[in-house]
Amino acid sequence: MKLLRLKNIYIFLFSIILLYGCNEDFLDVDSRERIDAEDSGEVFEPDDYVISSYGMLTDWTYAFSYLGVTEIISDNGDKGSTPTETGTDKHFLDGLTHSSTTPSITDVWTHWYKSIGRASYAIEYAEEYGLSDENHKNRLIGEAKFLRALHYFWLVRSFGDIPLQHIDLIERVPVEEVYAFIEQDLTEAIEVLPLKSEYAASDLGRATKGAAQALLSKVYLYQERWEDAQNYANMVITSGEYSLEPNYEDIWREYSENGVESIFEVQARGEQIAHGVNQYSQTQAPRGTGGWGWGYNVPSQDLLDAFNTENDNIRRDATIIFRGETLWDGREVSESVENPMYNEKAYSSANLGDSDGDKNVRILRFGEILLIHAEAANESGDANTALSSLNRVRDRVDLPLIETADQGQLRELIWKERRLELAFEHDRWFDLIRTGQAGQVMRAHGKPFEDGKHELFPIPNDQINQTPEMTQNPGW
């Protein structure tokens, strides 16, 4: 999708957020945009607002704060950079000593609600605009509902009970009700969104029926609704729209963007080199003499050990840049860079060191759906189906097929497979939490994980100060 063609629209809307950013309610984003849009005298098409909702995914938040709350905090990643560089707060997240005033936590809370407000306004605008093409209108609404559901999912798995923006800006709704709203948005989106193959080339990257089905399967996985998770994953698997890239390492190459494995990814490349997820590649690129980035979010020794224990050389070498190696495009990594390892999945070959980078960021892909299918099938007692989906993932990277295992053993194998298959794809911390492994794993690494506290992030202190009626999470 050529997001740059309407770049002026979402830059304009970002300026609105900044202009009205000191309003009392952190969460009342859509009304600020509506006021300025209506007073500007400019007339936008419904598609403009939907595209501006996609544009939120290229924000700086995803290049830095998001790294901290998804990977650096987990056993997969360490802060990186240099010992004296903190990345504002990444040392707190790495050490599990974060608090309600940690900026990265405030950043994701704020930005995700801004994104929800943007999507909600896009839905309302499309409904009221008077489009004559009913199918086009419904598709735009479906895209915005997918984006809204995605951000609510990220919020609920991070913070637990949260406000539903369209209902109340202060009262935190129980997790079950948040998930019910997400499910409603996704179910309605599935009804109206086209298949990936039905989009024109110029619309590549928009939300599809398969993307909504894939996200819904993941939403059900987090709720341990195994049958539903398996069913929706199976819809994606049997759709004929997706398959595994034959070579694992190709998933993150430019020529595989929006490829056969891609279900939904942030469209960051655009028509100009400097347009991308704002510095996503640069913040994670090697740092120091001979380096070209900031060096944050580096692979942990524990992750390397996990790859080596499994003899998983293919995924290890596609995931980790090693000091002194020559990369696939011929670039040599100096022996003098600061850290021994860096995140190769963030490497952007075409635009080395540019402040914006130009790499699409993968959000949902077919490999994960196979593992959701395997986990849900195993928990439902269907070992044969679970083994079949698990082994498709393993076979791609030349690992021995799992022939048999009891339910408990297979559960552990699937969890391990998720770690190795999806390393640095921003799910590891939440996998540890949802499977109940976080306390044991983090304490084994000397991190002060407190049961009943660290399963959720704190509601940001800025939010509590602005809306004192809002309750804080336990332990914070």
Explain the overall architecture.
The chain has 476 residues and is mainly alpha-helical. Among the domains are: 1-193 and 436-476, Serine Threonine Protein Phosphatase 5, Tetratricopeptide repeat, CATH 1.25.40; 280-359, no CATH class. Helix content is 48%, strand content 5%. The protein contains 19 helices and six strands. The protein has helices at 7-19, 29-39, 46-55, 65-72, 90-94, 103-129, 134-159, 175-192, 209-222, 226-237, 280-284, 301-309, 313-319, 366-379, 383-396, 407-421, 428-434, 438-444, 461-466; strands at 77-80, 262-266, 296-299, 320-322, 341-343, 361-365. The strands form three sheets. It has a two-stranded antiparallel sheet with strand order 1-3. α1 (7-19) packs across α3, α2 (29-39) crosses α6 (103-129) and α10 (226-237) packs antiparallel against α14 (366-379). It is globular, with a radius of gyration of 21 Å.
By DSSP (H or I, 4+ residues per run), the number of helices equals 19
Computed CA radius of gyration, to the nearest angstrom? 21 Å
Give the ordered list of helices and strands: HHHHEHHHHHHEHEHHEEEHHHHHH
CATH topology of the domain at 1-193 and 436-476: Serine Threonine Protein Phosphatase 5, Tetratricopeptide repeat
Name the poorly predicted regions: 1-24, 271-275
User: What is the total tally of β strands?
Assistant: 6
Mean pLDDT: 90
Q: What is the global morphology?
A: globular
Strand arrangement across the biggest beta sheet: 1-3
**CATH A-level architecture of the domain at 1-193 and 436-476:** Alpha Horseshoe
| Strand proportion | 5-15%
Main structural class: mainly alpha
